[in-house]
Specification:
Elements (H helix, E strand, L loop, with lengths): L3 H17 L2 H26 L5 H11 L2 H9 L4 H4 L3 H5 L5 H28 L9 H14 L3 H22 L5 H18 L4 H18 L8 H32 L5
Helix pairs in contact: 1-7, 2-3, 2-4, 2-7, 2-11, 3-10, 4-10, 7-11, 8-11, 9-10, 9-12, 11-12
Length: 262
Amino acid sequence: MNTPLEIADIYVMIGDGKTTQRLWKLFLLGLFAGAYIAMGALASQIASCGIEEPATARLLSALVFPIGLVMITIAGGELFTGNCLIIISVLSKNTYLTAMLRSLVVVFLGNFVGSVLVAAFVNLGHVLSLYDGALALSAVNTATAKVSLSFGDAIIKGTLCNFMVCIAVWISMAADDIMGKVIGLYLPVFLFVLCGFEHSIANMYFVPSGIFAQHMYGIPSEPLHWGSFFLRNLLPVTLGNIIGGSFLVGLGYWAIYLTERD
């Protein structure tokens, strides 16, 4: 098992690799990652739909959702939220801040395209017609709740979310085998879903899926539209994700393990 200090060293090198990758490859890897997260999000909706007791529904959703991050880690993909840890490589002077920002933007766009494509296909293929349309109603209600968050709540829930996601990535690097990585990823992601925190990439599926379902299934929701998605959810949640990943986890562990050598 790798120690936290060894994980910090590993991430210094990983950050350099992620910022020197060709942009088209970063975009495609981001697209795959967005699609994987979207599939995990869809599965979590299917698992919890129709469960009247809220705590049980949330528990089932949390049990299923982490599959998306597992697919990214094992099959390959670039996820914006996890890549906030590139700040460790920047602070260690192994890559540049401009390179990190360029990489994050390209991956973010890839994640968006992958997630929205899944949301579109799910609606076009009438997957949300499951349970006599109850799944479509659940998708609209979930999306409406997300765009109805206050700006401050969305930032805080985004911060807490990516604190846990980056801890999940960090823990997975302690293991050298697939099972160890899966377990390391699974538990913190399970926790963030159970607590109702906000993940920008998952929301790239949840909210567009609800927007599409409004029109596909005739389920009206006045607060739910593209403008409210971008301004009232995606923007503040993304800011929170950056704070939780880059500043809390990345900066924190860099200060603990790497400042004495830098």
